[in-house]
Amino acid sequence: MQKQKLSLKRITIDTNPDDCNFNCIMCEQHSNFKQKQFDYKESKRRIMPKKWLRSIFEEAKQFEVTEIIPSTMGEPLLYKYFDTIIELSKIYNIKLNLTTNGSFPKKTVTEWAKLIVPTTSDIKISLNGATKITSEKIMKGNKYEKQLQNIKELIKFRNQHFAKTGYYCSITFQLTFMQNNMHELSDIVKLASKLGVDRIKGHHLWTHFEEIKNLSFKYSKEGVKNWNKIVEKAIRAQAKYRKQSGDKIIFKNIYPIEFEEKQKIPEHYKCPFLNKELWISATGKISPCCAPDELRNSLGDFGTYPNTNFKTVIESKTYKNLYHNYKEITLCKTCNMRQPK
Fold it and tell me: What average pLDDT does the segment 188-212 reach?
C-alpha cells in the first residue's frame, strides 16, 4: 500500500452558497430547475461565520496551504465578510484562488480589481458562450456585453499592476462543458486570445436535474463523438489564436473522452483533490472534494468545523481509506473531475 504523506495545497470555504445574482441552468444550488423543487423563502440562508475565518487561515498556514478558495457555490463577491478574507490573505500570505461570475456586484470593477488582483493567484470568470444568445441562455441573469466589458477592465488593471509590481495574477475562463454551448469553444479560444486571458478551464456537466441530462456529452455515443470533434477544433484554434506574447492559451481538462466513461472512468485517471484539498461548507461540514452534496455524502463523514481540524481529517481512517481505495468507490468510478494526468 502506498504510504500517504500528509499534504494540503488548497482549502475551499463555501462562505455563502445561497447568495447569487445569477440562475445558471446547471448550478446545483441556483438553477431555476432547483428553485422549482425547493422553496428558499422558507429556508435559512447559509453564511459562514466571520469568526471562523481567522482560525481557518491560521490552520491553513500551519499546514503550508498555498491557496484559499472562497465560495465556489454562489457568488463569493456577495459574501458580506469578503473584505476580511482579503485582509487575512495578506496577514497570512496565502493567496486566494477566485471563481466569480464576472458581474462584480456592489463595487466598480476597478474597486474590486484593487482588492483581488494583488492577493489572488488566479481569477476564474465563469463564461459559458462566445455569443450573447448562448451565454445568457445558460447563465440566466448575466448581461453578456457588460460581462465582457468587466473582463476587459479587470485585465487592464491586472496588466498595469504587473507592470508596476512584477506580480502576475492569471485570468481564466471557467466553463461547463455542455452540448448547448461548447459548439462555441473555438470562438471562446479566439475571444480569450483577444482579451488577454491566460487559461481556459472547465469540466463536464454534473447532471443535477432531469431537465439537463441530455446536455451532457456523455449522455450518448453521438454526444461523445461530438465532444471529441470539438476538442480537435479547439486544439487547432489554440495553435492559431495565441496570447500577445506568442504563447498558447493554456487548456485544462479539454481532452477527448470515451463513451465507456459514463459507466467507469479509465483506471489511470486520478483524483485531483485527495491529499491536496479540503472543502468547508458554510455550516462547517468538511468534505474531501467538490462532488454534488448528495453524492458526496456517500464518501463518509469527515467531521464538522471547527470541532474537527484539518490534521484530524486527513489522519482519520475514513480519509485514509478513501485516499487508498477511491477507484473502487461507486461515485469515484464515474466522477467528472478525475483526470488522465
Answer: 95
Confidence of residue 3 (pLDDT cuts 50, 70, 90): low
Q: Extract the C-alpha cell encoding 91.
A: 496577514
Find, among 88, 86, 110, the residue nearest to 98 by Cα.
Answer: 86
Q: Which helix (H) or strand (E) holds 124?
A: strand 120-126
Q: From 69, 28, 76, select the one nearest 205 (Cα to Cα).
A: 28
Residue 267 pLDDT exceeds 50: yes
- Gap between the Cα atoms of 71 and 174, Å rounded: 15
Q: Please list, in sequence order, all residues whose beta carbon lies within 8 angstroms of the beta carbon of residue 166, skipping any fewer than 6 positions away.
A: none
| Start-end of H helices in the chain | 32-35, 50-62, 82-92, 109-116, 132-138, 144-165, 185-195, 221-240, 293-296, 310-314, 317-325, 330-333
Residue 279 bridge partners (DSSP) = 12, 287
pLDDT at 259: 77
Among 234, 260, 262, which Cα is nearest to 248's?
234
* Nearby residues of 172 by Cβ (< 8 Å), 6 or more positions away: 122, 123, 124, 125, 197, 198, 199, 200, 201, 252
Q: What is the DSSP code (8-state) at residue 93? A: T
Residues 13, 69 contacting (CB under 8 angstroms): yes
Three-class secondary structure of residue 232 per DSSP = helix
Identify the helix (H) or strand (E) that includes residue 250.
strand 250-252
pTM of the predicted model over 0.85: yes
- Which residue from 288, 291, 292 is spatially nearest to 280, judged by alpha carbons? 288
Sort 187 into a burial class: Cβ within 10 Å, 0-12 / 13-18 / 19+: middle
282, 287, 257, 304: which is closest to 76 by C-alpha?
282
